[in-house]
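user:
I keep going back and forth on a fold encoding question. Separate attempts, laid side by side, tell us more than any discussion would. Would you put together a sequence-and-structure record for a protein of your own picking? Write it directly below this note and I will take it from there.

assistant:
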Amino acid sequence: MSALLGLRMALTGGRRSLPGLVLTAVGVAAGVMLLLFGLAGQSALQGRLERSAWQDTEASTEATAPDPALWLAVSDHYADRPLHRVHVAALGSRPPVPPGLDRLPSPGEVAVSPAMRDLLAATPDDQLDDRIPGRVTMTIGAAGLRHPDHLVAVIGHTPEELRRLGGAQVVHGIETQSLDLLEFLKAGVMLATILMLFPILVFMIMVARLAAARHEQRLATMRMVGATRLQTAAMAAAETGVGAVVGTIAGLLGYLTARPILANIVEYGGYQGGHFFPADLVVPLDQLIVVLAGVPVLATLTTVLSLRRVQITPLRVGSRVPRRPPTAWRALPLVVGVAGFAVDAVVLRYRPDLMAANDWVMPALLLCSLTGAVVIGPWACLVVGRAMVRYGRRATTLIAARRIAGDPWAAYRSVGGVAVAVFVTTLVASFSGIGSTGAPGVSSDLRLRPGVVEIYAGGQPATALAPLMSSGVVVAGAVPGGGVAVACAELARVVRVTCPLPSEFQMPDTAAMGMWVTGGRVVEPGPDAAGLPVHALYVQTDGSVAAEERIRTQASSLLPRAIVSTSRDVFRQTVEFRVFSDIGTGMRVVMLFVLLVAGCSLTISLIGGLTERRRPFALLRAAGLGLGELRRIALLETTVPLVSMVLLAVGLASVPPVAISIIAAQPYAAPGWDFAALLGGGVLAALAMTTLTLPLIDSATRHDAVRFE
């Protein structure tokens, strides 16, 4: 009966119950929608990796077909877009076939992705088409594409033709194992999911608590006239449950509606980046059931627990029992982590023989720092609030500071997820800055200069690339035993380097491919340099895309397995580096996502605080405090905790990469302006969302709110 009465109050309560019902439904709908997209992100990334696993096929791949095939995979680019060419030749009637195709292309046939077909049609033959000999007769389906914009071509040859190209492997199967075998990728995707889910759950809990506060007085009155604890709990649960169920259904419908739109808008990953297939953004069935069943239960339980003062005694409804303030002991994990990195850097700099023990010391210090960044939050808000009290001069600043210092737990609750997300994202972005400014002893990064095309031949005879051997071409010869021979003055014309070069140095990851693979072994050419095999060629052009692509196409036709690159291209030398880069890009998306959710949470928190302090604010306004000053108080209460936690997280996350760069004796570059712009834009967007509540201050602090009857 109590539950039925609660349902009746929720559905027929008129203007008093409708705002709470709408608030609960809208908040839960937004939370469910964000939660489903957060869970879909993990399966979307995993799906992209699994569909592109076939491109990693090699001779050691497990057999999946009765007959073998010859296989030569080449990484290529068109302008700044990654492109994959796979040359194949069947060695039997039933060779292995990549996903997305029904059969291998026959000699003279070519299978291309839809994006590749469009690019071929829009590009002159001497810039792209000549790299793909044959007639396009087949289209690769979605099962074999990393994303809808994936540029890939499978080119059919006879076995004799492919053997003449050199470098082809005999394969007996197609690779099906995706990069999820990399443990740090699992950890990265899981961490990103957790970082998204935590603030969403906090947001939904805050919405439920705010809705509960709206009918707290009414339930307290029922308790005073004889209702039991169980009856009031059942009524509150029924009221919230209606809004939560409606919100859950609305959130599911919103997710299904926005999924194809979001798939066509969102672009992920610097390497092989592209949009998603709508089918990628699918939540696994078991997780979907948990969300749809668990969110209404969570919202209902939050409402019941929020009414504990009514359950104890209705006379305590207007009172607040403050929590004990956090102490400085909360800074201990952070101090241990930061100090540990400093000590570790100094010790290993002078005792490199202890590097083996660092395999467990470094992860422990990272975990300690992350824990400290989370635990220190309430105490940091307390310190900031007290500092504002001490140094503030305006009444509005002092009022906001007293609110923050009086309840630092509540101040941190809305921005706790932001602190973790910004810390982890800055940490990943900072790690990519190690060694990115060059190598010791070389005042440059060895990147290709604009307009230069590098043809990494890997020790091919000069005759194979004779048509490209025109005047002005810089030739790096392959030295027996490793390394290359090239005049430093000539090299400086095509890559960013200053002379003289040391005999050996540590090559930065930003270097051109032909330089990076040398490991820093670059020597001046001797008298016999002309007879050395070609390690790499550097051809200067006028810098236009057309000129660069003509050279690339000509080189690919002469030596199909050569790696040809320009300053526009982004080559990742290792699988780990590629995935780490994608994780870094994904974490930036997560950070922006969390900041926007934090903006929602801060908005709800501001509404809740305004509801709780409606009468005090109205008294302040009646006493002469202006409406603009009341709005400034509200903005300070939301702005100060958010900005403080962001700055603290950025500062703390910079310590481990700096320590590691010292240990590795590598130069360090902080995250660039693009990262700062993204972070600053996310913070401003979150704060802008809170301004939507400012008009409510006028209506909530009118003179009728001063009355005590």
